Fold this sequence. Notes:
Blueprint lengths: L17 H6 L4 H9 L2 H10 L12 H6 L10 E6 L8 H8 L1 H15 L3 E6 L4 H16 L15 E6 L9 H8 L23 E5 H5 L1 H7 L1 H6 L8 E8 L5 E6 L2 E2 H8 L9 E5 L8 E2 L6 E2 L1 H6 L8 E6 L4 H15 L5 H18 L6 H13 L7 H15 L1 H10 L10
The structure holds flavin mononucleotide (FMN).
Amino acid sequence: MTEKILSRRFDLKDSHTLKVYEENGGYIALRKALKEMSPAQILDEVKRSNLRGRGGAGFPAGMKWSFLPKDTDKPVYLCVNADESEPGTFKDRFIMERDPHLLIEGIIITCYTIRSSQAFIYIRGEYLSQARLLEQAIQDAYAAKYLGKNILGSGFDLDLILYIGAGAYICGEETAMLESLEGKKGYPRLKPPFPAVIGLYNCPTIINNVETIANVPAIVERGGDWYAGLGPPKNGGTRLFAVSGHVKRPGCYEHPLGYPLKKLLYEDAGGILDDLPLKAVVPGGSSVPVLKADEIDINLDFDSVQAAGSMLGSAAIIVMHERTCMVKATERIINFYKEESCGQCSPCREGTGWLLKIIQRILRGEGVMEDIDLLYDVSEGILGNTICPLGDAVAMPVMSYVTKFRDEFEYFIAHKKSKIETMVS
Ligand SMILES: Cc1cc2nc3c(=O)[nH]c(=O)nc-3n(C[C@H](O)[C@H](O)[C@H](O)COP(=O)(O)O)c2cc1C
């Protein structure tokens, strides 16, 4: 039976309230942190925990925090990334809806550790009901003296501001998020300098995903070694796997990193819809390379998924059964990234438009066989050639769909229709 860290209160009645949170172990870790531990001790526990960023890249949280300058006289900021716009991803929403105080407690402990007295949560514009719940939780935390001046008599002060974005995927990219928070257009910044050195308002800034921060109370309470021990080496803790698409029980399932993908699909998610054969699985949100059905005998940790040629990313698992047309699926992906490209870098701005024209030409029955390699070549021209990885986020999946399902593209071009529509269900 998996130990639940993030989802243990999800099914309790009124789990979003301060009362239920406190009745079920809430804010105990904060008391321990403020009364018994120094910032350096907490940083050490987080480093030992092997907690890696849950926003996509999997960067070790403790290492990121230690990049902050030691002797700065500028304010230090924490920006929590609640933009959650990667298609297929809905895990942070569960935390904010069902256990907002877990996130707030994680924020307070993190800020105490990095010596920040000002934190922000940047939430996507479409998450209005979640934003309302969070705002209420923040107000309740202020009223209970978990936020504000002299928190629990410790002398530590913290203010927390909830900032609602305008629904742009690019503002989930950490430096675009900083620009947006500063009131500007969400254009990603060149790195270096990294935000830990020059971030929000040119001050040292830590940016972490909601789920990353929500793990901090458990690490403080039970120790970094315990947390690290839940997953395989260098992959500490559990993840909220958001499973969607052609499964019988889509949902958000918490398991330790390293949990077998097949088990997640066939046991937790109840197997493939209509008991049809599986065709493909996207293991980390729409921006990662797709896996074919015969490639899914893998464990869900950062390193194993990478070894299988994809990425764990945001741990959004999108399942496609036999009756999915991969040419149409590719068009859906390209369309999204074309819409969401901020337009700052020409390879991404122009390349996504070219990809869309080519794939739509194929779908109209006007494609030529050379278009398949053209899709690949245009993607290759985008890959690694942009300021932020949004370009990679379209290039990588397109290259994988075209390579792994080339026969479907060839069929579509030759017959001017999808191979799938001709299949008998
Ligand atoms: C185009 C784009 C969109 C992103 N969207 C999100 C997002 O919605 N939420 C998120 O946490 N990280 C997102 N990221 C990753 C962030 O840039 C950053 O790596 C992350 O917030 C760091 O937190 P972590 O270390 O806790 O994962 C995105 C990255 C890119 C390139």
